[in-house]
Design goal:
Blueprint lengths: L8 H20 L11 E6 L7 E2 L5 E2 L1 H13 L3 E6 L1 H9 L5 E5 L3 H4 L2 E3 L4 E10 L16 E4 L3 H8 L5 E4 L2 H9 L5 E5 H10 L6 E3 L5 E10 L3 H12 L3 H12 L9 H24 L1 H34 L3 E6 L4 E4 L1 H6 L4 H5 L12 H14 L1 E10 L5 E13 L2 E10 L1 H15 L9 H18 L2 E9 L2 H8 L1 H18 L5 E6 L2 E9 L5 H11 L4 E3 L2 E3 L3 E8 L6 H17 L5 E3 L2 H20 L5 E10 L5 E12 L3 E3 L1 H11 L2 H21 L6 E5 L2 H6 L2 H12 L6 E5 L1 H5 L2 H13 L3 E7 L6 H7 L3 E4 L1 H4 L6 H16 L3 E5 L4 H9 L4 E3 L9 H10 L6
Parallel strand pairs: 1-4, 1-5, 8-9, 8-10, 23-24, 26-28, 28-29, 29-30, 30-31, 31-32, 32-33
Antiparallel strand pairs: 2-3, 5-12, 6-12, 7-10, 7-11, 7-12, 13-14, 13-17, 15-16, 16-17, 18-20, 18-23, 19-20, 21-22, 25-26, 25-33, 26-27
Length: about 850
């Protein structure tokens, strides 16, 4: 509370007269109403002295409290004040739990919800600074100073907008002044009224000054919710009953009064005479000692400037010391601490007072004694040490890696050590992580290819000395892509991690398992006396996969294809052995998966042939080595030719005519089947239009589609392009699908088939009966024809079971409204049996072998479909 100064008699008289008039007004009011009005609930801030705050007993007091008490007494209306922190006070008003919000500033956002009164107090926000500081006159002088401020105060935004950002935030105004009293801060920003109140309470009113011009001003008001004009007017009318003298009396109680009274002219006269004497004396001394005065004045000015600069420099340096992000430490030569900043205390997990009770040797692990002595010797000889890295002992017992530099300083004949300490924990962890990732797989933690190659080199060097062998095992999961596609990559990654852990437990300590990427692993088996010693390890590896894995609640089983190369028989360096093990692994995959194969030279030859053929296939389109043969499709009831199937052939310049079963799998594995299939579609449609223009009307051209074309190529656009460029009628193009297309990626493929069907083309199922046939798929995909695989037709006349299967397929097709076509019709007996079963169409050597374009044209002429 501010000091209460004595009031003049006239002021006291006016206040007594006001109180008498107030009492008379109360007496003159109407008789009391038995219906006691409901309380007026007022929400306000309880930490804004002298307007509203709580005393040591928690009781609310202040100017706003007294005004509302006087308002209640004037109006006879009970008032209940809800005083809390400002955020809760606003929430109370917004929750309709208060009628009035007091101690509030008017803003555009609040005016949308509240109706404000006229202002009853103007508040100035300003900067306070310790009297020992000079040079602070406005906001431009604040850079370089640490400024205390209330957390969330509006002044933070104002100062930040003016380029000031070096704040230390406190929970309340009282906490700021308490920090100033404890010399934590020397500059702070707040409203003048609460600042003067707390400075007075802490006996600091003479220790701090403030700048003359405030940063900005605000006005206190009270407010009601918009739309409740009757309540607003009733409250305003009550406040109008409070006189100016009554308001001044309340303000005087909490703010005090200015000294007043008559001017003492005698005192002024004496002061004037004294000043005149001093002035005459000064003039005399001026003339007598001008040279001396000039010298003294100059020296005094220099000393004052130097002293002020020294104070500012000391303050600035201390501020830098305390707020540095790097640990700073000053200690004696015996290791005892003199001073430290907060960053250093944080490194060893202590407060600053706790840190200053320690010595350098108490936080240094014993094993650093020798290196520490070397650094001290360097310090004594050169005046500095470091930078070097070591560890400190944290208060919790853990070790903290740090980087140190030090300088020797002297003062009053005594030597000290000034150290800069940097916590490099994150740097050390990052370096360790980088080193780990350089030699390990990030997903599984297993050694990567680089580390596996190093282990293999060591194993081969030992094998050379000890006359042993080393096995390199190439390990690839079967059908891992299906797991990723169906269950997601998170499940696939979880399977790889679980499998890596299980395999690591099954191997010997001397063995190395390494992930190469994807679902591929290599295992190095050193120190083997012969190839038979591989088998127990191989049994453990394959046995690991027999037990199912549970990943994210899903039970998974898997298998692996494994290829093995032996040092030194299959290669004498890592790359050769890895390549040969890879070749053996692919041989295991081609043989049916879930197998193991040892490398031999025949595999190398086969792999080289396969590689050469794949490379040649890449150039076959550009070199026009690919061509189409055509085999007729015959109506079994009439014997008429109803169409042709386009069959792809490769006329290799060195190897001759290569059958499709040799190069089609290579084209699918390499993805070349997409551009090749696109060429087949366009060429077949173009050729059929040529025959049609030559007279062969109503024929159908059948083209096989690969499952790869459904997933990798733009099949729909390719079909549209072939139809448009050739001009063929869509119903004349029959696309042959494999059963795998029906069951793999069903939703995607189903949508594609429906779009193709919408183009008007025909669809047939090739090699029907050899795959996972499903009637529901046939219904969903809406195909037009079933092509019965030749494996059933081959023994049609002498195998009752095959005959029953063929009959069942034909009858099923007719019940579903589908045509049936028999592949591989070789003789007349097969033809008659198929006619007996009411098969619709046939294809095979009995009618004609696949023919070149010219041969098929001659065939059509012989059938009377083309003019001679």
């Amino acid at each position: 509370m501010m000091p209460v100064r004595p009031l003049p008699f006239r002021t006291i008289g006016r206040q007594l007269l006001g109180l008498l008039l107030f009492a008379f007004c109360l007496w003159a009011q109407a008789a009391p109403d038995n219906n006691t009005p409901a309380d007026i609930v007022v929400a306000m801030d309880d930490n804004y002295p002298p307007y509203s705050f709580r005393d040591s007993n928690g009781n609310l007091q202040g100017i706003s409290k007294d005004l509302w008490d006087l308002w209640s007494m004037k109006t006879g209306q009970p008032v209940r004040i809800v005083a809390t922190d400002w955020a809760k006070a606003q929430q109370t008003m917004e929750a309709d739990q208060a009628n009035v919000l007091d101690t509030v500033f008017r803003t555009e956002e609040r005016e949308r919800r509240l109706r404000f009164s006229e202002p009853y107090a103007t508040l100035e926000t300003t900067i306070f600074f310790h009297q020992s500081l000079s040079g602070i006159t406005n906001v431009n002088d604040l850079p370089g100073f640490l400024i205390g401020i209330k957390d969330g105060d509006a002044a933070i935004g104002w100062l930040t907008a003016h380029g000031i950002s070096n704040f230390r935030k406190y929970s309340s105004y009282e906490a700021i002044v308490k920090a100033a009293a404890d010399n934590e801060i020397h500059v702070f920003c707040m409203e003048k009224e609460p600042a003067m109140f707390f400075l007075y309470r802490n006996n600091l009113e003479s220790a701090f000054r403030h700048i003359e011009k405030p940063l900005y001003t605000g006005q206190f008001r009270w407010a009601t919710r918009k739309g409740n004009d009757a309540l607003h007017e009733r409250i305003a009318q009550g406040f109008r009953q409070i006189s100016d003298d009554e308001r001044k009396a309340i303000d005087t109680r909490w703010l005090g009064t200015s000294l007043s009274g008559k001017i003492d002219f005698n005192l002024i006269k004496y002061i004037g005479l004294s000043l005149l004497v001093v002035l005459l004396l000064a003039i005399a001394l001026l003339w007598l000692n001008r040279a001396l005065r000039r010298t003294v004045a100059a020296k005094t000015g220099e000393l004052s400037s130097a002293l002020e600069a020294l104070r500012e420099s000391e303050h600035y340096n201390r501020m830098l010391f305390e707020n540095s992000m790097i640990g700073l430490l000053l200690c004696r030569m015996d290791g005892s601490f003199i001073d430290a900043n907060q960053a250093f205390a944080d490194i060893i997990g202590c407060t600053i007072p706790e840190a200053l009770r320690l010595t350098y040797w108490q936080i240094t692990p014993p094993e650093y004694a020798q290196s520490e002595q070397q650094q001290l010797d360097s310090l004594k000889n050169t005046g500095r040490y470091g930078p070097y890295e070591k560890e400190y002992l944290h208060k919790s017992g853990r070790r903290v890696p740090v980087r140190l530099t030090g300088t020797l300083v002297e003062r009053h004949g005594e030597q000290f050590i000034w150290s800069c300490v940097e916590d490099i924990t994150q740097h050390t962890q990052a370096k360790e992580q980088i080193n780990f990732l350089a030699f390990h797989d990030a997903l599984t933690g297993l050694p990567n290819r680089t580390l596996a190659q190093d282990r293999m080199a060591q194993a081969m060097a030992r094998a050379e000395r000890e006359q042993e062998i080393v096995a390199l095992m190439y390990f690839d999961l079967d059908n891992f892509k299906a797991i990723n596609d169906s269950l997601g990559h998170a499940t696939g990654d979880g399977l790889l991690q679980a499998m890596a852990k299980r395999l690591s437990g099954a191997l010997r300590e001397t063995d190395t398992i390494s992930r190469q990427g994807g679902d591929e692993f290599i295992i190095v088996l050193p120190g083997l006396p012969n190839t038979e010693a591989i088998m127990p390890v191989l049994d453990k590896v394959t046995g690991c996969l027999l037990q199912p894995f549970t990943i994210n609640g899903v039970e998974l089983t898997t298998s692996a294809s494994i290829g093995i190369a032996i040092y030194p028989d299959d290669g004498r360096d890592f790359e050769t052995l890895l390549k040969n093990a890879d070749i053996a692994m692919y041989q295991a995959k081609d043989a049916g998966r879930n197998l193991c194969r040892f490398f031999d030279q025949r595999m190398q030859a086969d792999a080289q042939t396969k590689l050469n053929m794949t490379n040649g296939l890449r150039r076959a389109l550009d070199r026009r080595e690919l061509l189409l043969h055509y085999q007729p499709l015959v109506d079994l009831a009439t014997g008429n030719v109803v169409g042709a199937e386009a069959l792809l052939r490769w006329q290799h310049p060195e190897m001759g005519l290569i059958p499709p079963m040799t190069f089609i799998p290579l084209a699918e594995d390499s993805g070349l089947i997409v551009p090749i299939g696109n060429w087949v579609l366009h060429e077949a449609c173009r050729q059929m239009v040529g025959w049609q223009q030559a007279g062969a009307q109503g024929l159908v051209i059948a083209v096989n589609l690969s499952a790869v074309q459904f997933t990798r190529g733009d099949l729909e656009q390719s079909v549209i392009s072939a139809l448009e460029m050739s001009g063929i009628n869509p119903w004349q193009l029959e696309l042959e699908l494999t059963e795998s297309i029906l069951i793999d990626n069903t939703e995607h493929n189903l949508n594609m088939v429906h779009r193709l069907k919408a183009l008007g083309v025909r669809l047939s199922i090739d090699d029907f009966g050899t795959g996972y046939s499903s009637l529901s798929y046939l219904k969903q995909f809406a195909v037009d024809k079933l092509k019965i695989d030749r494996s059933f037709i081959r023994n049609l006349t002498n195998d009752p079971e095959d005959a029953a299967i063929v009959r069942a397929i034909i009858q099923m097709g007719k019940s579903l409204g589908l045509k049936t076509l028999a592949e591989g019709v070789e003789d007349g007996q097969m033809l008659e049996r198929l006619r007996l079963f009411h098969c619709d169409e046939g294809q095979g050597f009995h009618f004609a072998k696949p023919m070149t374009v010219d041969q098929f044209s001659a065939y059509l002429k012989h059938a009377g479909l083309l003019a001679e």
